Amino acid sequence: MRRPELFGVPRVRPWSWQAFLLGFAIVAVSAVVQGACVALGAKLYFAAFLPSIFVVGILAGAPAAVFAVLLVIPLVWWAFMPPFFEFSPLTSAYADSINLFFLLAVLLIGLADLCRETMAIISRGGLKRSGESAATNPQ
Fold first, then answer.
1. For this UniProt entry, which segments traverse the membrane (predicted)?
2. Is there a smaller number of Cβ atoms within 10 Å at the N or the C end of the chain?
3. Rounded distance, CA 70 to CA 130, Å?
4. Handedness of CA 118, 99, 80, 47 (dihedral sign)
């Protein structure tokens, strides 16, 4: 049986080492993009990482997306929040940024998981009828 794909891009089985490696690779690419944004003067610390969390969630599943979130938070704290390349005490603004990112990441992971399950249902041929439902009244 063929596994569902997303527009020709194969999906990775959740909890596999390939899924976690994909999550790490996408976070690394997003860190490079975020570094370029910071070099240009952007103050949005998690901007490049939000789409990557959604992509990891769709391609590799929720466990790899959670792994990516757990990588991103200390990475941003260390590399992109002043003072750069050191862990310093969080100000309330930085803590709020981390909390907001965490909330959005949880919502994106849930949405990605729903999209992943929907793609799996569609690839199996959709939902099957299981007899009569309450909406159809034979009277």
1. 20-41, 53-78, 98-115
2. C
3. 41
4. positive
For residue 107, what are the contacts with CB-CB under 8 A and spacing of at least 6?
A: none
Inter-residue contact 48 to 30 (CB < 8 Å): yes
CA distance 79 to 16: 28
Checking phi first, is residue 57 left (phi over 0); if not, alpha (psi -120 to 50) or beta? alpha
DSSP assignment string, 116-127: HHHHHHHHTTSP
Give per-residue pLDDT as tens, 54-111.
999 999 999 999 999 999 999 999 999 988 899 999 999 999 999 999 999 999 999 9
User: What six digits make up the tokens of 112?
Assistant: 């990605």
Q: Mean pLDDT in the chain?
A: 88
Predicted TM-score (pTM) of the model is: 0.83
